[in-house]
Specification:
two-stranded antiparallel ribbon, 12 strands, 8-stranded mixed β-sheet, about 350 residues, about 15% strand, alpha/beta
Length: about 350
């Protein structure tokens, strides 16, 4: 139920003349940004990061301030080079060009290596940018740092300038299950994939920093299942962007078949919740109101990448159920709107 204050506000809005909203790329011009985001992902790795980036760039309620390409674990099968972050930035640039989006923001390569330990930051332009953006005083829009891979750049920024901890919210796809909330999947990997990219960075963020954290652990991000049927029906027909995204995913599926890996007919777009929890927050009392989380004490992360109880930790959000229907329906609609004449 709306409060009297909101009810009066709505009455005032109803007195304003209607605004006609057109089709195509201008269809959502009535929506304006209400948050700033920096997106940090391993775009040369799992293609779910490219889906997430495309969705975010089509979301008018977010002001994307920078795109950071981040590294994978050494020898990762997706990209076993020594220039993983550079390659990630190039893949992000490639997607932006395919989409035809005009961006006046930097696409930055982060560090190509993990932190040497949990107290020594890496130095990169991405780290400098996070600090500068967090310290801005010319805007009231809240800042979210969206991480779909390791935490190297965010951890390094927090270690370099601890004062930024209360000036941003970290939304992170990563970490294993909390066993009182969910059990791990069959044949699960340990440490969890994203945490294992840079365990030292995760330890710096969870054990040493005071930054607010919205965590989407493995049991939650595995809910983001895209059926191959919907890829063909809702993504592939949608212009150059749809064809590009379908191509990178189908190419991976073909590659996996060559290694006798049968992944069935769904794919986990595990990074897309980064968009769900930011761009798709509720209208009034803004929050990701259709997804569910618990508040718990931030655990300590061990050198082995497991959780330890930390009675002195601050509270963090741990998401355990995501509104996948809202997330995918919005993505499909925005792709279609983008490709209308």
């Amino acid at each position: 139920m709306l409060t009297n204050r909101w009810f009066k506000f709505l009455l005032l809005l109803l007195a304003v003349p209607a605004i006609t909203v057109g089709q195509g790329s201008g269809a959502q011009s009535i929506v304006t940004p209400r948050m700033r985001v920096i997106v940090d992902n391993d775009f040369s790795g799992d293609p779910d990061g490219l889906f997430q980036l495309a969705h975010l760039l089509l979301s008018p309620s977010v002001d994307v301030r920078a795109i950071v390409g981040s590294h994978l674990r050494v020898g990762d099968g997706f990209d076993n080079s020594t220039t993983q972050a550079d390659n990630a930035a190039k893949k992000a640039q490639e997607l932006v060009q395919v989409m035809g989006v005009k961006l006046n923001i930097p696409i930055i390569a982060g560090s190509n290596t993990a932190m040497p330990n949990d107290s020594t930051p890496v130095k990169s332009e991405a780290v400098k940018f996070i600090i500068r953006e967090a310290l801005r005083t010319d805007t009231q829009l809240p800042l979210y740092v969206l991480c779909g891979a390791g935490l190297t750049e965010t951890a390094s920024a927090l270690l370099t300038n601890p004062q930024i901890a209360n000036k941003l919210t970290l939304v992170w796809i990563g970490g294993p299950e909390y066993t009182d909330l969910a059990l791990p999947p069959p044949n699960y990997s340990t440490p969890e994939y994203n945490l294992n990219i840079d365990i030292a960075a995760a330890r710096a963020v969870f054990n040493r920093a005071a930054v607010p954290i919205w965590q989407i652990p493995r049991n939650a991000y595995r809910q983001a299942l895209l059926p191959y049927s919907l890829l063909q029906l809702k993504v592939k027909p949608q212009g150059k962007t749809g064809k590009y995204l379908s191509y990178v995913l189908e190419r991976l599926m073909t590659r996996l078949q060559q290694y006798k890996l049968n992944i069935g007919e769904t794919y986990v777009l595990g990074d897309s919740p980064l968009v769900l929890l930011t761009a798709l927050q509720s209208s009034f009392e803004a929050d990701p109101s259709s997804s569910e989380y618990v508040l718990r004490m931030s655990p300590r992360i061990t050198p082995q990448g497991t959780y330890e109880y930390n009675h002195t930790g601050r509270q963090i959000r741990v998401y355990n159920r995501l509104d996948i229907q809202l997330m995918f329906t919005d993505f499909f609609a925005k792709l279609e709107l983008m490709n209308r004449p």
